[in-house]
Amino acid sequence: MSKFSYRVLLLALLVLITSLFSACSTEPKEPVQVEDDQSILGTFGQIRVFAASEKKGIKAIEAAFKRIQYVEDTMSTSVNDSDVHQINQAAGEASVKVAPETIKVIEAGIKYHQITGGRFNILLGSLIELWGIGKPHQKVPTDVEIDEARKHIDIQQIEITNNKVHLKDSDMLMDLGGIAKGYAVDEAVKVLKDHGVKSGFVNMGGDVYAIGSKPDGSPWYIGVQNPIIGANNSIIRVPLVDRSIVTSGDYERYFVENGERYHHIIDPATGKPSRKQLVSVTILSDKGMDGDALSTAVFVMGLEEGLAFIEAQEGIDAILITKDKEVYVTTGIKDQIEIIDNQFKIAN
């Protein structure tokens, strides 16, 4: 071998070795935090992700919000020509062909009605409209009006055949508001994961899903809001990894008439706002749709029945707060939560 050939070979080996060392010593690129907020689903929506690049993060978030908007346009009672709006318009007269997603959510609503003993009901529209809480016509209806509206909440009056839905009672109104937001969060999480997101969160007005853990491997910490009206602090800190957390409380939407406060969580058994000792129910679950439905149902059940009910559900945990600022926690998360407001005490 000539000296020239030898030098060329040596140089090539040095370049190869240098490249190998460089490849071995290169640290993984830090993920980029990307965030966007939008008014959607009648609330404040926030999505934060950690992505390989800002461009990829923006693309993932845009796709997630687009999916949420689709759910709202398809299932909101207040959107003209939505599936639910059309179902209500045709009540007692005709079946309406709807999207497969709408069928899925309606069937889930029927399931939750069954397992909660009727405490969760997607056919409370007549009562919700009668009370009008949060709307210009809100008022305390008469007992006669309430009794009449309660005649039109029978879940058996839903008929589903071949992607068509029919409400057999012409005075019946479907309202998926107690479940569709959780479904929208679940769908947004699917979209983000399909875009390669492994860390982040979706927050739709308190319906939160934590995707994976933080980039440093630690869990996301989500606060449970103080249920005292006028307070704006968190009272409990909960660690989350690939889990949903949803809270329902009597402080969220209400009005006051003749010195008495009336909140938006209606008890189907009475047709009136639930008057149990609870002021807040937080559900932790693998799916936001579960948390949405069960937080409402448990609030209506009350403390003892609600706590026992959740303890019997696999993969579901709960935090129940009473008017006396007592906190009751299911056994699955009792050792994980942290009280950060000493006005509240764990009672069990």
Automatic annotation (TrEMBL):
SUPFAM superfamilies associated with the record: ApbE-like
For this UniProt entry, which segments traverse the membrane? Answer: none
Q: In which residues is Mg(2+) bound? A: G178, D292, T296
**What taxonomic lineage is listed for the species of origin?**
Bacteria, Bacillati, Bacillota, Clostridia, Peptostreptococcales
UniProt cross-references to PROSITE patterns, sorted A to Z: PROKAR_LIPOPROTEIN (PS51257)
What name goes with this protein?
FAD:protein FMN transferase
Q: Which Pfam families match?
A: ApbE
InterPro entries, from UniProt? ApbE, ApbE-like_sf
One GO cellular component this record assigns the protein to is: plasma membrane
